[in-house]
Design a protein that fits this description.
Layout lengths: L2 E5 L2 E3 L5 E8 L8 E6 L6 E6 L6 E2 L8 E6 L4 E6 L8 E7 L2 E2 L3 E5 L2
Parallel strand pairs: 2-11
Antiparallel strand pairs: 1-3, 3-8, 4-5, 4-9, 5-6, 7-8, 9-10, 9-11
Length: 112
């Protein structure tokens, strides 16, 4: 079945960086776009990055544009989220999503 396993979350100071990874299985990875979302306490899930199936197109909301970068390695069935210049407001559970299925999420905490 379709499965995603996220990793790379943790505690980072404001201004710091983290790279999240999401390993996919159970479907043809190269045939579908992938997304990263985040869910902050008391808030709805928010799309933070999207990448096309072939990796040639990406999209970000203004809240993270210029700070977050999504990429994929088809040879590893993995999608990444590079997060720079992190702010306390970026604290959230980050989840990857593809083919209508959610990963379990990884916690990112930005705090001094």
């Amino acid at each position: 079945q379709v499965q995603f396993v996220e990793s790379g979350g943790g505690l980072v100071q404001p201004g710091g960086s983290l790279t999240l990874s999401c390993v996919a299985s159970g479907f043809t990875f190269t045939s579908y776009p992938m997304s990263w979302y985040r869910q902050r306490p008391g808030k709805e899930r928010e799309l933070v990055a999207w990448i096309s199936s072939v990796g040639g197109s990406t999209d970000y909301p203004d809240s993270v544009k210029g700070r977050f970068t999504i990429s994929k390695d088809d040879s590893k069935n993995t999608v990444y989220l590079q997060m720079n210049s992190l702010k306390p407001g970026d604290t959230s559970v980050y989840l990857c999503r593809g083919v209508g299925v959610w990963g379990q999420g990884t916690q990112v905490t930005v705090s001094s």
